[in-house]
Write a structure and sequence with these properties.
Helix content: under 10%
Number of strands: 12
Largest sheet: 10 strands, antiparallel
Structural class: mainly beta
Oligomer: single chain
Order of helices and strands: HEEEEEEEEEEEE
């Protein structure tokens, strides 16, 4: 549903540009006249974690010191879509009339959640939510393949890789008990990105609505010995991002 909404929104922007195709093309602030140009962006992010479980993930976690079980039998582990946002900077370099390279460093504010359900007689311990609070810095390097310009509109596709770096504390729950500890993901990891969008030219600037997906390369889980991490063998981060670029 979310993907369909953002795809429809991009088409609305694109057809808005086509509606002005009968008048002289807009200058767009001269964004395409130079090999280099710069801009900024605002993004909405929806992300979740793809979960790989241990073979014995349903087994209750036992206290390493006493051997007493701290949880019941696990019945499910899930990661719902969680919202976030990002603000960023854009730098582009024209390689040809239809191909350009760009970097879009961004400051990202996005939380991820893991929800555990247990077979427990206590209602308060039947469903446990662990939130992974993340403030990070993303550095994507992308290639942008553009169509011919039609009036004030130009469609494009993008693809590339992204390096993500967490800016939070390395071990924020070091002084907490086993039941209070949260799952951690790598502070630095890489992802691939693909997406599409369109450039809409106005008199003094160019607006580019864009939708893209990204998936992390490999496992981003930091393995630890506590109830939230014990059932997991791996995590991969999946992100859907809708952005507005201004040049």
């Amino acid at each position: 549903m979310i993907k369909s909404f953002y795809t429809a929104l991009i088409f609305v922007f694109c057809f808005t540009g086509l509606a002005f195709g009968q008048r002289p093309p807009a200058w767009g602030g001269g964004a395409d006249l130079n090999d280099f140009s710069f801009g900024f962006s605002f993004s909405y992010i929806s992300s979740y974690l793809k979960i790989n479980k241990q073979p014995d993930w349903t087994t209750p976690f036992a206290d390493p010191e006493t051997g007493a079980p701290l949880t019941g039998n696990a019945t499910s582990i899930s990661s719902p879509n969680s919202p976030g946002f990002a603000v960023g900077f854009l730098a582009r370099y024209r390689l040809t009339d239809h191909l350009e390279a760009r970097v879009t460093p961004s400051l990202v504010f996005a939380d991820r959640k893991l929800i555990y359900t247990y077979d427990s007689p206590d209602p308060e311990t039947q469903v446990i939510t662990k939130q992974i609070n993340t403030t990070g810095f993303d550095l994507p390097l992308q290639l942008k393949l553009k169509s011919d310009r039609i009036g004030d509109l130009r469609g494009y596709m993008i693809g590339g890789v992204k390096l993500s770096q967490s800016l939070g504390r390395k071990n924020p729950d070091a002084d907490k008990g086993l039941l209070e500890k949260t799952v951690k993901i790598d502070r630095t990891f890489a992802s691939y990105e693909v997406g599409l969008g369109c450039d809409i030219y106005f008199e003094f600037f160019k607006l580019s609505p864009e939708i893209k997906i990204s998936n992390s390369f490999g496992n981003v889980l930091v393995p630890e010995n506590h109830p939230a991490s014990y059932p997991l063998s791996g995590l991969r981060l999946h992100t859907l991002q809708f952005s507005l670029y201004f040049e």
